[in-house]
Amino acid sequence: MRMYDIILKKRNGGSLSKEEIEYFVEGYTNNRIPDYQVSVLLMSIYFKGMNTDETVSLTDSMMKSGDVIDLSGIDGIVVDKHSTGGVGDTTTLILAPLVASCDVAVAKMSGRGLGHTGGTIDKLESIKGFNAEISMETFIDNANRIKIALAGQTGKLAPADKKLYALRDVTATVDQLSLIASSIMSKKLASGSDAILLDVKVGSGAFMKTPDEAFELARIMVDIGNGMGKDTKALITDMEQPLGRAVGNAIEVKEAIRVLQGKSKGELLEVCLALGSELLVMAGKTENIKDACRLLEKNIENGRAYEKFLEFVIAQGGDREMVLNPEKLPQGRFVTELKSGERKYVKAIDGMEVGNCALVLGAGRDTKDSQIDLGAGIYIHKKVGEKIEKGEVIASLFGNDVKKLEAAASRLENAFSYDEKPVEKRKLIYGIASRNGVERY
Question: Which of 58, 250, 299, 359 could form a disulfide with 364 if both were Cys (CB 3.0 to 4.6 A apart)?
């Protein structure tokens, strides 16, 4: 088998066999096939596409390029959720303890963020002592004992994806749906869960900008997961504005705690209830979505969800006092407020621009070596459709660098647009993709 023939076949619009895909993935991962040949193949895939069989084979090969985690030691059906990314997307911090409080095991491998804020692990490390570098023995024990475990992804998980993504990033081939889907699913499938729920974001603060793109990506990923023997579904959710009111690291942990305590409602809670309901049904805990949602709401009301978060943090070395007293979490020394000069309604919020402002404050990473300011962040007091009176605060910015704070505040003003008349709130959940096909709401 020759790489030349594989490139030629795909360039001419042919479908690659499982063996051909395995050959190039294994060869490139182990440095036997050079960058320039794989670059040409990626560009051919970009223009000619891949069918479902090819996409499944690519995912399978990348998954098997490293460790495939065995979670058979965890009792019952193990569930996991993956978001395609957004701004103020605090769902994992809420969803994992909420589902675990219903006696369903949540075992999650998470990464660190490279972008406007840190990833789930960075956010949790706002809590002093929290440790995501736990052994597999501890990971499985925690999932059995308290029904929730979270650990950092190792470099041995789908190393082919890491290498291919780096090449895609410098050859303008990132935004091809089969390549995106196989990249995400290779890591999720290698993580070992029995049931996978995908949260595919769409809007200004997401990678997918239109509902059609988001539904197509969701369909491909669901087909991959089910094609590889894992119960897989996807919800398509809105990210035209930040999902939560908090954007940052410690500030998102604070918001998650308030939601789990039943002190905060809104879009963030609504999405978490929708995702959690699907996970409970997938785990066989309830037969229908309505019963599942009622169970989740009950566990917020009776305090079990919040107690589960506290138990989870303590089990992984975190300081319980920071959960019991969230004001002890890191917060920037300086605060700037964006205020309204007149009575009006929020018409739109550019999610990506809010994320960029958080990055300016220091809440995220420009490069993998960047240092995150855990206390930097933004709190949005007024979201789309909400009325603002003259002099009211629209958003608060927190930081430890005055110049960064000034730059971010000036930029944040442009992320908001207004109307004199009431504005209708946006649709939050667009639909679902499952083995039964796609359903638009």
Answer: 359
